[in-house]
C-alpha cells in the first residue's frame, strides 16, 4: 500500500503522524511511505531521518495526497485540504465530526473512507488511540490553567499550591475519565485542593482509591456543579461521550456565580465543548474572557508538546496502521471490530449513530 503523511497545517499543530521508526516498520512490510518535506521537524525528526528509514520525501501536500492510498494524519483535514482528499482514499486521523458540520459535509462529499482515532474502541469501551492524547491534555490542562490564573493574564492571581500560611487554590474537575484523572493527579501534585465530579460511581471509587486525601470525589449533578463553581479557582471540562457532542455542563448564566478571574479549561472543545461559552481557540490566541471569566479552549492542546505527543500517539496508532496497510481497510475493519468502530464516514455515508444524532436537526445526512 502507498501511505502518505502530509505536514500538519492546523494553527500551531507541530505533531506528525508517523515517526521514522513507524516508517521503517511499514517499509519492512513492503509498503511505500511518502512524507511531506519538513513534516517531522517540529517533533524532532529530520527529513534525513525519514529517508534513512526508507521514506520517499515529497515537497508538497498535493503530491502526498495524490499518490497515497491511505493518508495518516494527526488532526482533521482543514478547508484547504478538502479538495485534496480523493474518492475511496482512506483517511486515518482524529476527526471529531460531531463538532463540525462543515468538515462532516466535506468528507461526505469526498467519498473517502474516514476512520477516526477517537472512536476506535474495544468491547469494554476503552479508547486506545484517544487515551495517550487525553493523558497529555489532562496534564496540560492544569499546567495551562495554573498559568492563566496569574493576574497579568486576567486570572484571579492564585497560586495553585499556595504557600505556608495561605490555603492552596481549588480545582474542580468535571469528569473522571482519562483526562479528569490526569488533571486531578497534576493538580494534587501541585498541592491544590481538588474536587472531581462524575456520574459513574465505579470511576469515582477508583479515583478515591488512587488519589491522596485532598482529592475529593462527588457525584455529578447540576446542583453540585452550581455549588462548587462559586468557590473553585480553576475548572477543568473533561467530559467525553465517544463520537458524540459533549453536553453543556456550565451555562452562560452560571458564569455570574463564579468569582472574577476564575479560569475554565475546556478539554472537550474538540467535541463541541462542555461549557456553553466555549469556542475553539489556538495556541496563538489561547484565551478569551466572558463575564470576567477566563476561557482556555485550545482544540489541539497536545500540539504544544509535539515531541512527547508524537511519540505517545504513534506508539498506539502504528499497530492499526499496519493492519490497514497489510489487509486493506475492509478486511482490517471486519477482522478487528475495535478498528471497525473507527469507521465514521464511508464513501459518502455517515455510519456512526452519534454523528447522525449530532446533526439530525440540520438535515445534514441527505443521501
Overall description:
With 367 residues, the protein is of the alpha/beta class. The chain folds into two domains: 176 residues, 3-Layer(aba) Sandwich (Rossmann fold); 173 residues, Rossmann fold. It is built from twelve helices and 15 strands. The strands form two sheets. The chain has an eight-stranded mixed beta sheet, sandwiched between helices. Strands 9-8-7-10-11-13-12 form a seven-stranded mixed beta sheet, sandwiched between helices. Strand 2, helix 2 and strand 3 form a beta-alpha-beta unit. The longest helix is centred in the last third of the chain and has 22 residues. The relative contact order is 0.16. The mean pLDDT is 95.
- In the CATH hierarchy, the architecture of the largest domain is 3-Layer(aba) Sandwich
What number is the mean pLDDT? 95
Got a strand count?
15
Per CATH, the superfamily of the largest domain is NAD(P)-binding Rossmann-like Domain
Query: Rough shape?
Result: globular
Topology order in helix (H) and strand (E) letters: EHEHEHEEHEHEHEHEHEEEEHHHEEH
Radius of gyration: 21 Å
β-strand percent reads 15-25%
Percent in helix: 25-40%
Structural class of the secondary elements?
A: alpha/beta
GO molecular function: alanine dehydrogenase activity
Family: Belongs to the AlaDH/PNT family.
Protein name: Alanine dehydrogenase
Domain Alanine dehydrogenase/pyridine nucleotide transhydrogenase N-terminal: 4-137
Amino acid at each position: 500500500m502507498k501511505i502518505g503523511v502530509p505536514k500538519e497545517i492546523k494553527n500551531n499543530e507541530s505533531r506528525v503522524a508517523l515517526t521514522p521508526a513507524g516508517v521503517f516498520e511499514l517499509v519492512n512490510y513492503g509498503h511505500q511511505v511518502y512524507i511531506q518535506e519538513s513534516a517531522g521537524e517540529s517533533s524532532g525528526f529530520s527529513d534525513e531521518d525519514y529517508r534513512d528509514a526508507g521514506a520517499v520525501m515529497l515537497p508538497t501536500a498535493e503530491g502526498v495526497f495524490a499518490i497515497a492510498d491511505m493518508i495518516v494524519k494527526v488532526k482533521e483535514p482543514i478547508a484547504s485540504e478538502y479538495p485534496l482528499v480523493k474518492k475511496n482514499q482512506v483517511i486515518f486521523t482524529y476527526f471529531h465530526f460531531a463538532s463540525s458540520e462543515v468538515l462532516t459535509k466535506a468528507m461526505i462529499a469526498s467519498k473517502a473512507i474516514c476512520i477516526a482515532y477517537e472512536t476506535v474502541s474495544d468491547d469494554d469501551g476503552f479508547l486506545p488511540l484517544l487515551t495517550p492524547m487525553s493523558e497529555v491534555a489532562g496534564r496540560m490542562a492544569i499546567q495551562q490553567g495554573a498559568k492563566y490564573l496569574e493576574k497579568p493574564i486576567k486570572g484571579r492571581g492564585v497560586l495553585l499550591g499556595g504557600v505556608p500560611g495561605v490555603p492552596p487554590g481549588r480545582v474542580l474537575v468535571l469528569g473522571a475519565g482519562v483526562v479528569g484523572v490526569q488533571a486531578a493527579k497534576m493538580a494534587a501534585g501541585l498541592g491544590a485542593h481538588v474536587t472531581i465530579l462524575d456520574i459513574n460511581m465505579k470511576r469515582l471509587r477508583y479515583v478515591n482509591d488512587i488519589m491522596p486525601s485532598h482529592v475529593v470525589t462527588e457525584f455529578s449533578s447540576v446542583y453540585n456543579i452550581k455549588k462548587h463553581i462559586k468557590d473553585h479557582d480553576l475548572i477543568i471540562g473533561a467530559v467525553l461521550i465517544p463520537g458524540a457532542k459533549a453536553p453543556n455542563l456550565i451555562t452562560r448564566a452560571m458564569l455570574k456565580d463564579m468569582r472574577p478571574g476564575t479560569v475554565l479549561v475546556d478539554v472537550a472543545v474538540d467535541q463541541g465543548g462542555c461549557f456553553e461559552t466555549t469556542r475553539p481557540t489556538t495556541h496563538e490566541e489561547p484565551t478569551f474572557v466572558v463575564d470576567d471569566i477566563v476561557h482556555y479552549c485550545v482544540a489541539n492542546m497536545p500540539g504544544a508538546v509535539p515531541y512527547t505527543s508524537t511519540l505517545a500517539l504513534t506508539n498506539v496508532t502504528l499497530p492499526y496502521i499496519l493492519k490497514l496497510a497489510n489487509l486493506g481497510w475492509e478486511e482490517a475493519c471486519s477482522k478487528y471490530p475495535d478498528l471497525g468502530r473507527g469507521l465514521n464516514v464511508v464513501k459518502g455515508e455517515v455510519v456512526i449513530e452519534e454523528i447522525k444524532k449530532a446533526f439530525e436537526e440540520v438535515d445534514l445526512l441527505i443521501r
